[in-house]
Amino acid sequence: MRFSKLRLNGFKSFVDQTDLVIGDGLTGVVGPNGCGKSNLLEALRWVMGENRPTAMRGGGMEDVIFAGAATRGARNYAEVALTIDNEDRLAPSGFNDSVMLEVVRRITRDAGSNYKINGKDVRARDVQMLFADASTGAHSPALVRQGQISELINAKPRARRRVLEEAAGISGLYQRRHEAELR
Ligand code: ATP
Ligand code: MG
Protein backbone atom coordinates (compact mmCIF):
# COMPACT_ATOMS: atom_id res chain seq x y z
CA MET A 1 0.00 0.00 0.00
CA ARG A 2 1.54 3.28 -1.10
CA PHE A 3 0.13 6.81 -1.10
CA SER A 4 0.23 7.97 -4.70
CA LYS A 5 -1.88 11.15 -4.91
CA LEU A 6 -3.29 13.83 -2.66
CA ARG A 7 -5.99 16.23 -3.83
CA LEU A 8 -7.06 19.22 -1.76
CA ASN A 9 -10.01 21.50 -2.31
CA GLY A 10 -10.89 24.33 0.07
CA PHE A 11 -8.74 22.74 2.77
CA LYS A 12 -7.08 25.45 4.93
CA SER A 13 -4.91 27.63 2.66
CA PHE A 14 -5.50 25.37 -0.39
CA VAL A 15 -8.57 27.25 -1.62
CA ASP A 16 -8.35 26.11 -5.25
CA GLN A 17 -8.13 22.47 -6.16
CA THR A 18 -4.53 21.28 -5.78
CA ASP A 19 -3.34 17.92 -7.07
CA LEU A 20 -0.09 16.46 -5.76
CA VAL A 21 1.50 13.35 -7.16
CA ILE A 22 3.51 11.38 -4.61
CA GLY A 23 6.24 9.60 -6.55
CA ASP A 24 8.42 6.66 -5.60
CA GLY A 25 11.13 7.23 -3.02
CA LEU A 26 11.46 10.17 -0.71
CA THR A 27 9.35 13.29 -1.24
CA GLY A 28 10.39 16.64 0.15
CA VAL A 29 8.16 19.69 0.51
CA VAL A 30 9.96 23.02 0.59
CA GLY A 31 8.71 26.58 0.68
CA PRO A 32 8.72 29.81 2.67
CA ASN A 33 7.15 30.12 6.12
CA GLY A 34 3.39 30.02 6.01
CA CYS A 35 3.13 28.57 2.49
CA GLY A 36 1.19 25.51 3.68
CA LYS A 37 3.72 22.71 4.30
CA SER A 38 2.25 21.76 7.67
CA ASN A 39 -1.27 22.11 6.23
CA LEU A 40 -0.36 19.34 3.77
CA LEU A 41 0.60 16.96 6.56
CA GLU A 42 -2.61 17.89 8.37
CA ALA A 43 -4.62 17.13 5.23
CA LEU A 44 -3.10 13.65 5.22
CA ARG A 45 -3.94 13.17 8.88
CA TRP A 46 -7.46 14.52 8.37
CA VAL A 47 -8.40 12.31 5.40
CA MET A 48 -7.34 9.30 7.49
CA GLY A 49 -10.00 10.20 10.04
CA GLU A 50 -8.45 12.66 12.50
CA ASN A 51 -11.21 14.02 14.72
CA ARG A 52 -9.33 16.15 17.23
CA PRO A 53 -9.38 19.82 16.15
CA THR A 54 -6.28 20.42 18.30
CA ALA A 55 -4.31 17.99 16.11
CA MET A 56 -5.25 20.26 13.20
CA ARG A 57 -4.22 23.43 15.06
CA GLY A 58 -7.87 24.49 15.17
CA GLY A 59 -10.57 25.21 17.73
CA GLY A 60 -13.29 23.30 15.88
CA MET A 61 -13.39 20.86 12.98
CA GLU A 62 -14.78 23.47 10.57
CA ASP A 63 -11.59 25.48 10.99
CA VAL A 64 -10.07 23.29 8.26
CA ILE A 65 -12.37 24.98 5.70
CA PHE A 66 -10.76 27.91 3.82
CA ALA A 67 -11.73 30.87 5.97
CA GLY A 68 -11.37 33.61 3.34
CA ALA A 69 -8.66 36.15 2.58
CA ALA A 70 -8.50 39.82 1.56
CA THR A 71 -9.37 38.97 -2.05
CA ARG A 72 -11.29 35.68 -1.65
CA GLY A 73 -14.47 34.78 0.18
CA ALA A 74 -14.66 31.86 2.62
CA ARG A 75 -15.51 28.44 1.25
CA ASN A 76 -18.47 26.36 2.31
CA TYR A 77 -16.74 23.00 2.30
CA ALA A 78 -13.33 21.37 2.34
CA GLU A 79 -12.41 18.12 0.66
CA VAL A 80 -9.30 15.96 0.69
CA ALA A 81 -8.84 12.86 -1.47
CA LEU A 82 -6.04 10.38 -0.94
CA THR A 83 -5.24 7.83 -3.62
CA ILE A 84 -3.55 4.65 -2.48
CA ASP A 85 -1.73 2.29 -4.79
CA ASN A 86 -2.68 -1.24 -3.74
CA GLU A 87 -0.74 -3.04 -6.46
CA ASP A 88 0.90 -5.26 -3.81
CA ARG A 89 -2.59 -6.20 -2.50
CA LEU A 90 -1.51 -5.53 1.05
CA ALA A 91 -4.58 -3.52 2.02
CA PRO A 92 -6.60 -5.04 4.88
CA SER A 93 -9.14 -7.68 3.89
CA GLY A 94 -12.33 -6.24 2.46
CA PHE A 95 -10.40 -3.65 0.43
CA ASN A 96 -8.29 -5.98 -1.66
CA ASP A 97 -10.48 -6.19 -4.77
CA SER A 98 -9.02 -2.95 -6.13
CA VAL A 99 -5.52 -2.02 -7.23
CA MET A 100 -6.36 1.56 -6.37
CA LEU A 101 -8.17 2.92 -3.35
CA GLU A 102 -9.47 6.47 -3.21
CA VAL A 103 -10.42 7.74 0.22
CA VAL A 104 -12.34 11.03 0.23
CA ARG A 105 -13.38 13.11 3.21
CA ARG A 106 -15.51 16.21 2.88
CA ILE A 107 -16.70 18.61 5.56
CA THR A 108 -19.52 21.06 4.90
CA ARG A 109 -20.33 23.97 7.19
CA ASP A 110 -23.05 23.03 9.70
CA ALA A 111 -23.32 19.54 8.20
CA GLY A 112 -20.22 17.70 9.44
CA SER A 113 -17.96 15.23 7.67
CA ASN A 114 -18.66 12.40 5.28
CA TYR A 115 -16.33 9.76 3.89
CA LYS A 116 -16.17 7.71 0.72
CA ILE A 117 -13.95 4.83 -0.32
CA ASN A 118 -13.90 4.29 -4.10
CA GLY A 119 -17.07 6.35 -4.41
CA LYS A 120 -19.09 4.44 -1.82
CA ASP A 121 -20.30 6.11 1.39
CA VAL A 122 -18.57 4.70 4.44
CA ARG A 123 -18.39 5.56 8.14
CA ALA A 124 -15.48 7.40 9.76
CA ARG A 125 -14.74 4.18 11.59
CA ASP A 126 -14.31 2.24 8.32
CA VAL A 127 -11.66 4.71 7.18
CA GLN A 128 -9.94 4.72 10.57
CA MET A 129 -9.90 0.90 10.60
CA LEU A 130 -8.54 0.68 7.05
CA PHE A 131 -5.53 2.74 8.09
CA ALA A 132 -5.16 1.26 11.59
CA ASP A 133 -4.96 -2.26 10.15
CA ALA A 134 -2.40 -1.03 7.63
CA SER A 135 -0.32 0.34 10.55
CA THR A 136 -0.79 3.91 9.53
CA GLY A 137 -3.51 6.49 10.16
CA ALA A 138 -4.17 9.82 11.79
CA HIS A 139 -2.29 8.77 14.94
CA SER A 140 0.53 7.05 13.11
CA PRO A 141 3.96 7.44 14.71
CA ALA A 142 5.19 8.18 11.18
CA LEU A 143 3.53 11.61 11.36
CA VAL A 144 5.65 13.68 13.69
CA ARG A 145 4.44 17.12 14.72
CA GLN A 146 6.71 19.87 15.99
CA GLY A 147 7.26 19.39 19.72
CA GLN A 148 6.06 15.81 19.64
CA ILE A 149 9.41 14.26 20.55
CA SER A 150 9.64 16.16 23.80
CA GLU A 151 5.96 15.34 24.53
CA LEU A 152 6.78 11.65 24.12
CA ILE A 153 9.75 11.87 26.45
CA ASN A 154 7.58 13.49 29.11
CA ALA A 155 4.52 11.25 28.49
CA LYS A 156 2.99 8.91 31.07
CA PRO A 157 3.66 5.17 30.47
CA ARG A 158 0.10 4.53 29.23
CA ALA A 159 0.36 7.22 26.53
CA ARG A 160 3.77 5.92 25.52
CA ARG A 161 2.35 2.39 25.23
CA ARG A 162 -0.28 3.66 22.78
CA VAL A 163 2.47 4.94 20.49
CA LEU A 164 4.15 1.51 20.57
CA GLU A 165 0.82 -0.20 19.81
CA GLU A 166 0.29 2.04 16.78
CA ALA A 167 3.81 1.21 15.60
CA ALA A 168 3.22 -2.53 16.07
CA GLY A 169 0.00 -2.31 14.05
CA ILE A 170 -2.27 -3.72 16.76
CA SER A 171 -4.30 -0.58 17.52
CA GLY A 172 -7.09 -1.77 15.17
CA LEU A 173 -7.47 -4.91 17.27
CA TYR A 174 -7.35 -2.86 20.44
CA GLN A 175 -10.19 -0.63 19.21
CA ARG A 176 -12.32 -3.66 18.25
CA ARG A 177 -11.81 -5.18 21.72
CA HIS A 178 -12.83 -1.90 23.32
CA GLU A 179 -16.02 -1.79 21.20
CA ALA A 180 -16.78 -5.47 21.99
CA GLU A 181 -16.51 -4.72 25.72
CA LEU A 182 -18.96 -1.84 25.38
CA ARG A 183 -21.63 -4.07 23.85
P1 ATP B 1 6.33 27.11 8.51
O1 ATP B 1 7.50 27.03 7.56
O2 ATP B 1 6.34 28.38 9.28
O3 ATP B 1 6.16 25.88 9.36
P2 ATP B 1 4.17 26.16 6.79
O4 ATP B 1 4.61 26.09 5.36
O5 ATP B 1 4.14 24.89 7.56
O6 ATP B 1 5.02 27.27 7.56
P3 ATP B 1 1.39 26.27 7.35
O7 ATP B 1 1.41 26.35 8.83
O8 ATP B 1 1.06 24.96 6.73
O9 ATP B 1 2.75 26.84 6.79
O10 ATP B 1 0.37 27.33 6.73
C1 ATP B 1 -0.08 28.37 7.47
C2 ATP B 1 -0.97 29.23 6.59
O11 ATP B 1 -2.21 28.59 6.37
C3 ATP B 1 -1.23 30.56 7.27
O12 ATP B 1 -1.02 31.58 6.32
C4 ATP B 1 -2.69 30.47 7.65
O13 ATP B 1 -3.34 31.70 7.58
C5 ATP B 1 -3.23 29.55 6.57
N1 ATP B 1 -4.47 28.89 7.02
C6 ATP B 1 -4.64 27.99 8.01
N2 ATP B 1 -5.94 27.64 8.14
C7 ATP B 1 -6.61 28.34 7.20
C8 ATP B 1 -7.99 28.46 6.84
N3 ATP B 1 -8.94 27.74 7.45
N4 ATP B 1 -8.30 29.31 5.83
C9 ATP B 1 -7.36 30.02 5.19
N5 ATP B 1 -6.05 29.98 5.49
C10 ATP B 1 -5.67 29.17 6.48
MG1 MG C 1 5.03 24.24 9.36
UniProtKB/TrEMBL annotation:
It is found in: Cytoplasm. ATP binds at P32, N33, G34, C35, G36, K37, S38, N39. It comes from the Bacteria. Belongs to the SMC family. Contains large globular domains required for ATP hydrolysis at each terminus and a third globular domain forming a flexible hinge near the middle of the molecule. These domains are separated by coiled-coil structures. Homodimer. Required for chromosome condensation and partitioning. This is Chromosome partition protein Smc. It comes from Falsigemmobacter intermedius.
